[in-house]
Amino acid sequence: MDKIRVLVVDDHPVVRTGIKKVVELEDDMEIVAEAGTGQAAIEGVAAAKPDVVLMDLDLPDKSGIEVTAEIKDKYPEVGVVALTIHDDRDHLLEMVRAGAAGYLLKDIEPGGLVGAIRAVNEGNSYMSPPATKKLLGEFTRMANGREQDKIDGLTAREEEVLHLLAHGQSNKQIGASLSISEKTVKNHVTSIFRKIGVGDRTEAALYAIRKGLVELN
């Protein structure tokens, strides 16, 4: 089995060393490059071709938000996970808008870090509980201005797909759970996004939590 290729971006060498030790204890992942600046991170993605980038937000030349947006523009297949000290709503929302699939605080336990790497590598999102609550609050605020409850527009099958999506399942896993093809799942997901007015799986999952389709643990 191919290992998950990870690039670590942080301007503090001691932090990079600590992350490297955690990641390399896992049999299914490896550190393929390190970077201490935004420009080095972009060059590292081009050279090392990582599957997942762990991104600090405070870099000496560019913000991690800028670097994330540039990476996602040039290499959309690469998953980016923020690993930061910032727990405020603004940094979180800016990283999500830039294309990050994960947002973790630096006090996360090692198991949470490697779990996030695996989840993002599989095409899913992974947010720390504080980040999830902040995103949920933002979407609740946005939804309060809507005139109607859009979940009524979903079919029963679409609600089933949304429920599984919110639990972090990939399209392939959803298809297996519901005994339908991956292509059919993709069509359902596209329809769900359009009906509930969201742009990605993270927003859809948070919408499902707010509507009570899944519980926030």
Describe the structure in your own words.
It is a single chain. This protein has helices at about 15-25, 40-50, 65-75, 90-100, 110-120, 130-145, 155-165, 170-180, 180-195, 200-210; strands spanning about 5-10, 30-35, 50-55, 80-85, 100-105, 125. It is an alpha/beta fold and about 220 residues long. It folds into two domains: about 5-140, Rossmann fold, CATH 3.40.50; about 155-210, Arc Repressor Mutant, subunit A. The chain has a six-stranded parallel sheet, sandwiched between helices.
Topology:
Blueprint: E1 4-9, H1 13-23, E2 29-35, H2 38-48, E3 52-55, H3 64-74, E4 79-84, H4 89-98, E5 102-105, H5 110-121, E6 126-127, H6 129-143, H7 156-166, H8 171-178, H9 182-196, H10 201-210
Parallel strand pairs: 1-2, 1-3, 3-4, 4-5, 5-6
CATH superfamily of the largest domain: Response regulator
CATH class of the largest domain: Alpha Beta
Portion in beta strands: 5-15%
* H and E string: EHEHEHEHEHEHHHHH
